[in-house]
């Protein structure tokens, strides 16, 4: 067994070697400028995206048992930076060392912060994720990145390419699809994969809720700032709620099948959320995910106030069925209705914390253990294809969709530049129309 000094040496070498290109060639000097010090075993963290979820991710990273320190922060907005810094520095006085010169603001802030860390937390609106992940891998950093990892096919291709390089460099990458780190899902899935309910031939996955926040347009805001503040309602930033939120449940469908759909078809609309504050996205999607073996899994998500909420997953197999939910439920029955497994609902660890605990434990030990980016990207792409299907009213095939070139990202990033989607004279945005909208 290694003693603590041996572990520190192994970790130092691991973090240093992670900044090398496969084959032993060093990255440029700037990329390695923030590399791990050979005389300090502290794992240095940079937070990219200082909103509520970013602050939460940093809170979880700093709550691990590893020797960690937050050394850099980046965001597009000063007020979000200031609030996040105050919350984190008040809670973790000894673990937050981010003087003003290491609190970077602007569209290029991420590059400066990434250079100073061993591990980066990528928690901006997801439209920025591909270029941030690409940069983190280029600079040889370990990564925690929130889902979704992209909002369109070009973004997914960038993430998949960077994921391959991350594996070559032995960079740990954890994606915030936290059900993969939740005890009831892990224990139930083990039994399903061992054949407890046979081959899965159908299923149903849901995220039905009342919706999320809205940020009102403020006087003097440019269109770029308004859309970034109200990012949930614009696809170049969010991807629609089927991508941003329902991806959690769709990921479970892919996990239980051990594969990804070959085609998707479905329907959706704006039935409740129709005003100009809601950008372009739908408030309901219902799609069918068809897999290569003929299995079909039904996926439904909606944001309707005053209606029944449902966030869970059910699947049927040739020998039985299962029910899962984020509320720690994990149950298996045979075809006669006999319960064959039930996971306890109390005493389970918070999966948001577990994903950070396991990531930082691996880094501290000098282990290459996590490469979530590929499967995270493919589950996100499943949800993106779902959006393509509901917006167009067409059956969308995986292979064809992945080749799509229609990037949603703005041609220029500046506060005075316009995003590709603009409102009309009444402040309303174009909304996709099935049968007319072209998505590929």
Automatic annotation (TrEMBL):
GO terms for molecular function: nucleotide binding. InterPro entries: Gfo/Idh/MocA-like_OxRdtase_N, Gfo/Idh/MocA_oxidrdct_glycsds, GFO_IDH_MocA-like_dom, NAD(P)-bd_dom_sf, TAT_signal. It comes from the Bacteria. Residues 185-321 form the GFO/IDH/MocA-like oxidoreductase domain. Residues 43-167 form the Gfo/Idh/MocA-like oxidoreductase N-terminal domain. This is Dehydrogenase. It comes from Pedobacter lusitanus.
């Amino acid at each position: 067994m290694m003693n603590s000094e041996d572990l520190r040496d192994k970790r130092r070498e691991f973090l240093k070697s992670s900044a090398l290109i496969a084959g032993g060639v060093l990255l440029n000097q700037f990329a390695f400028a923030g590399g791990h010090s050979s005389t300090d075993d502290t794992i240095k963290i940079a937070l990219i995206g200082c909103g509520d979820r970013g602050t939460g991710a940093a809170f979880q990273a700093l709550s691990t048992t590893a020797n960690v320190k937050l050394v850099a922060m980046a965001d597009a907005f000063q007020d979000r930076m200031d609030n996040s810094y105050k919350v984190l520095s008040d809670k973790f006085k000894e673990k937050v060392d981010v003087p003003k010169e290491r609190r970077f603001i602007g569209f290029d802030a991420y590059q400066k912060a990434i250079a100073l860390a061993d591990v980066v937390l990528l928690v901006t609106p997801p439209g920025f994720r591909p270029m941030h992940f690409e940069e983190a891998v280029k600079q040889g950093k370990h990564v925690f990145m929130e889902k979704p990892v992209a909002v369109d096919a070009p973004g997914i291709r960038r993430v998949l390419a960077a994921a391959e390089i991350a594996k070559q460099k032995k960079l740990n990458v954890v994606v915030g699809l936290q059900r993969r780190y939740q005890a009831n899902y892990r224990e139930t899935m083990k039994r399903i994969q061992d054949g407890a309910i046979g081959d899965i031939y159908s299923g149903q996955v849901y995220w039905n809720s009342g919706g999320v926040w809205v940020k009102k347009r403020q006087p003097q805001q440019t269109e770029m700032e308004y859309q970034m503040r109200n990012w949930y309602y614009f696809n170049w930033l969010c991807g629609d709620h089927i991508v941003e939120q329902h991806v959690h449940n769709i990921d479970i469908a892919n996990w239980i099948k051990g594969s990804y759909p070959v085609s998707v078809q479905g329907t959706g609309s704006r039935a409740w959320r129709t005003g100009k504050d809601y950008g372009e996205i739908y408030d309901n999607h219902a799609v069918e995910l068809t897999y290569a073996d003929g299995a079909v899994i039904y996926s439904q998500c909606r944001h309707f106030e005053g209606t029944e909420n449902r966030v869970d997953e059910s699947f049927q197999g040739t020998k039985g069925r299962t029910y899962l939910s984020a509320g720690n439920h994990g149950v298996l029955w045979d075809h006669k209705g006999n319960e064959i497994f039930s996971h306890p609902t109390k005493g389970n660890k918070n999966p948001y914390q577990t994903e950070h605990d396991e990531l930082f434990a691996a880094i501290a030990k000098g282990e290459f253990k996590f490469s979530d980016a590929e499967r995270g990207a493919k589950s996100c792409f499943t949800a993106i294809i779902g959006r393509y299907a509901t917006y167009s009213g067409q059956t969308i095939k995986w292979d064809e969709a992945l080749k799509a070139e229609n990037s949603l990202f703005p041609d220029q990033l500046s506060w005075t530049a316009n995003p590709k989607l603009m409102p009309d004279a009444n402040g309303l945005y174009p909304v996709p129309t099935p049968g007319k909208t072209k998505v590929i």
